[in-house]
Structure of ABC transporter substrate-binding protein:
Amino acid sequence: MIYFGKRWSRAAVFIFGMTLLAAWTSGCRGDGGQEGEAGSGRAEESLAGRSITVYMGNSPAADAIRTLLPEFEAKTGLKVDLTSFTNEQLSQRMSVQFAAGSTSPDVFMLRPLEELKLFGVGGWLEPLDKYAAGDAEYDAADFSPSAVESVTMNGTIVAMPLSTEQQILFYRKDLLAQAGLSVPHTLDELEAAAKALHDPAGGVFGFVARGQRNALVTQLSSFLYSEGGDFQHGDKAAINSPEAVRGIGRYVTLLRRYGPSGVFNMGWQQAAGLFSQGKAAFYTDASAIYSIAIGSEQSSIVDKVGFATFPAGQAGAKPYNITAWGLAMNAGSARKKDAWQFIRWATSKDVVMKSQQMGNPGARQSVWSDPQGVVGFPEAYIAVVKESMRIGVGHDRPQLVQVGAARDIIGDIVIQGLLDEDVKAAADKANRDFQALIDKERSP
């Protein structure tokens, strides 16, 4: 077990967990009988008569593991008691059981950029470096470096990547061709193309993306990075730096001048829906929702959608490339060796290959480079994802425990800009509020 400092009060974490406890009958139990030693331990090793508990959220990665699980149990003899929850239920349940000191579950899914710091500061995440070290067959170096960055805390890997997302640009091939325009490779070119294709009277907006205050922050991130900015530098808020303000200004300009009315109410579902209905020329969001963005087989644009790497700003093209879901081990588990066998299997090259063939975009570079690993994905999409994995940044939101509050603070800058208020003034205010939030977390 490792404790990642005292920057967020254990007492606060405990109170948070116990507040939720009334809503749950967690049935926590202490499972003893096994030492939590490290070691690669091949999956072929017989684990007959032993069992572990695994909690999973709702995702294609979880669906794939559930489908393949009988093979693992038959091969190893290890019984896996797998329970699924909605994403928010999973997060709440884990917080409750961790706060109560439960040794169960042994393994669980988490959304690293939402929960890793929360769980890490409580000392609840087992470091996994020691288990993967020296295991040539497992080949931990095969994971995309920026995806690993998403599951690393204080230099230690505390979860293994299950699925990834990258910010990419969706565009209408037919509209660009009709206007004689090339696919934009820079943010300047994107703005010019969005302006040229913006035709509200004809039912087509130049650009669409998320406009909801909290939801938009992850998609704003690539604009910041590509202009040389970031949300923070260590414990220093940086959302009002010239580079960050320039990136925010890009996003605001595209939405305000060339976006639809009512953009304030748009999360990814609404933005993707508008694009899939043929009502926007450009759309930027997570690669994982490409099948929704292009619409169903009956969609009028299903064969007219192109995919491009996020356009370059003054700092180059820097889209996020993150671990959307990771698989972690409970630091309090009494069955660590068996827990690692499950994690090792679920994130192995073979299972990632099969999972990706089922539609779950994984984090292993070798699978993306194998023709069998990209079956079913559009050819242009594959090239964009691979390039985004190569150049990507490993976070898409502020990096602190109270990430939701931070997203509200930062997202409000865009809202003010959409209301035609001064973006720099809004960024200065947000930076002060964001710094106060960071300082509060750092306090004993």
